[in-house]
Amino acid sequence: MSHPPTVRAGARRDTVPFVATATLVKNSRSTRSTIALKILMAVSGIVFIGFVLAHMYGNLKAFAGHDAYNTYAEHLREFGEPMLPHTGFLWVLRVVLLVSLVVHVSAAVVLWRRARRARTVKYVVKKNNHSTWASHLMRWGGLTLLLFIIWHLLNFTIGKINVQGGSTNDPYNLLVDSFDTWWLTLIYLFAMAMLGAHLHHGIWSSMQTLGLTNNERSRARAKTTGFVLAVIIAGGFSLVPIFVLAGVITK
Ligand code: HEM
Description:
By secondary structure, the protein is an all-alpha fold. The protein is built from seven helices and two strands.
């Protein structure tokens, strides 16, 4: 059933009129489940932010050279021993990431479908072009990131594909061979730009879901947090590919 937006009759000019839409009718079952889905998206998104921050920092070991980088890669596999078996920590991490990915993507698809169903007739005049643009960017950017992650795992973990045809059993050399290839570096830089945009808006959006944007000051803080984290993560990740292509990080 679709309800047209309603505006309270007689709302004074200086008050914000009460607007109810089919997607957010107060205390309805679908509103509660929409909020639950948004919380799931926010929490799984926070798991990813923790991971990408740590992963980005780890990648910077490439600046310390071949042995330092490969020792770090090996440490990842030994982490937690002897309490955990070899690669045990990595497997726990993989399971947590996979569950977060499934939750994040499924919640996004359900919310996307729900928003589309709620608005069967398009607005004649779109007043808020910014939010329309942001939601398009989140959807298509998210899809691009999903494709990127599939390629990325084939490149470095599951498939270990060396696009230069060289060896694949040495993590540092595989990294350098990959980013010494201009088109692959370009693909990665494009993906990092998408990641930055996704994080910028996603962090703001998750803080809103978690009730951290209730006043002007907290809204400004949420915007700054989104911007700063996006620049640190996307910028930090981009450094290694750029410096390999520039010939600073070499085999
Ligand atoms: C320029 C950006 C990036 C570079 C250079 C990079 C590099 C690498 C490398 C070299 C590995 C293999 C590590 C090893 O086997 O020791 C790896 C693994 C991985 N990366 Fe990235 N990465 C980047 C961005 C990302 C992003 C944005 C994500 C996720 C959103 C991501 C997710 C992963 C995952 C899940 C693994 C597999 C870990 C495992 O299970 O072994 N990476 N990355």
